[in-house]
Amino acid sequence: MNLNKISILTNHVFLCRYAWRKLCAEHVLGRRYMAFATCKPIRFFQCTSKLVVTMFPCPRQNLRAGVAVPVLPARTLSLTACMFKSKNHNTDNNSLEEEEDEIDEAEIEELFQQQIPTGISEEEHRVFIVHPDVKWGSRKQYLTTAALQMEEAVGLVNTLYNWSVVDKIILSTKTPEKRRIFGKGNFQALTEKIRATPGVTAVFVNVECLSPSSEKELQEAWGVKVLDRYSLVLHIFRCNARTKEAKLQISLAEIPLLRSRLRNEVANLDQQGGGSRYIMGSGETLFEMQQRLLKERELKIRSALERLRRKRHLLRSQRKHRDFPIVSVMGYTNCGKTTLIKALTGDAGLQPKDQLFATLDVTVHAGKLPSHMTVLYVDTIGFLSQLPHQLIDSFSATLEDVTHSDLIIHVRDISHPETVNQKVNVLNVLKNLQIPEKLLNSIIEVHNKIDLIEGFEVSDPEVIPISALKQHGLEVLKEKIEEAVVKYTGKQIMTLKVQLNSPQLAWLYKEATVQAVDDVGDDCTANVKVIISQAAYGRYRKLFQIFLMESESCLTLHRQQRN
């Protein structure tokens, strides 16, 4: 192994202080991965045919005393594995890079359960809901009402198992930016009402995000746990998370919440951090240590999400190679996206639920259009108003699939009283995702749940009215999807003359969408009507050039005989 390979290896593996501290922790716990350190900061030597590296300078007293220092487990730096990678060997099965990119389930679970920033226990909660009704200013909501916002807040609480609403109140405020949110009189009356309500275990203040100081002051005044929309939605996400992807993204979304509350928690602990099982720099305070550990946790999560992004990129490349059109189904939470995809695909594995944030993962489902063209429908997480942008940013790894789709279906619950406000929120999120202008212009707006509106009439001819549950209007929607897919993917509808004794027809069935086959008769040829992409048509002409020349010759001969 030459020096260049050694340099790449050390940069790849050891530029992480977290790994060194973890190894020291393993040493304390009695693990047997040991090697004798030398006085040089970087040293390579052979130990049972494995490459062992010590990179960080060791304490002088340890060097003088000849103390053994723990390093990475030998199997982590197998010499065979390193040489295998350096030669860029790549196999289809069990490749080393695939093994490295595999996200360990136990590691994800450890990150997910490491620290719950909301501080909400899993037990039953009786919640008092407070909605601040802002009378004017930039925080006033003009497309909705306080009563409708309160209704959504009640729905959020009722989403959680064993949670119930014991009471609710709407209070006007002119100072939503202050720590107590309300004026002195309203705050005093609210405090008395909360304390007089029996059995209250938490208060949900229906605002986007409370500052740590505001949360602390409200908890001291009311004597119970105080929640905002950010912390409550995060807890709902935690309860609904099932896959590695969802758990990783939720863990990342919790980082800003942890960071904002960290200073408040350690304000009275300005002591020097000592006696820890971690190796800390001299003079490092507890706050600095926790900030550093939080940063390392964030880097670890982002690294795992980057592996997830690469995996999704590979899946997208495979779908692109198969030339399947991709249709993303988006909308406000609980608008009926999953129900619609189930109706379009007939996928019995989809189990829609009448609750907020029932879907936290982006899933793909195949369906057929009237022309028998196969399309892939992408089910996405629902959106919600008044949420910090960090929460949506955390799900960018999965929402990235939307930016690579060919078409977007925007599903609206047209029976909801806030349907206009919900539409505005969804479109704002789509713009923040930096979706290409061409894709934004391709959006098909679908008005769902028309069965809940008596005498529903369509006001916009471009809108498709449906009932996904009753399966009304689905055929019209499929025709609209097919028309848009052909338009925005550059596919062509053409009639090709093929020889029936050649593999042309079988190839077209596999690589294109065959709509009709008309048998010509005498010359063993047929006219085949297909929907085909330009790339597939180019491959078709290249593969079957001989047959195409023969077909053209036969056609010329047939014309001469007629003349």
TrEMBL record:
Positions in coiled-coil regions:
89-116
Q: Where is the Hflx-type G domain?
A: 325-489
Q: Identify the Pfam families for this entry.
A: GTP-bdg_M (PF16360), GTP-bdg_N (PF13167), MMR_HSR1 (PF01926)
Molecular function (Gene Ontology), one example:
metal ion binding
User: Which Gene3D superfamilies does the record associate with it?
Assistant: GTPase HflX, N-terminal domain, P-loop containing nucleotide triphosphate hydrolases
Keywords, comma-separated and alphabetical: Coiled coil, GTP-binding, Magnesium, Metal-binding, Nucleotide-binding
Q: Which GO terms describe its cellular component?
A: cytoplasm
Query: What's the protein here called?
Result: Putative GTP-binding protein 6
What organism does the record attribute this protein to?
Answer: Sinocyclocheilus rhinocerous
State the encoding gene: gtpbp6
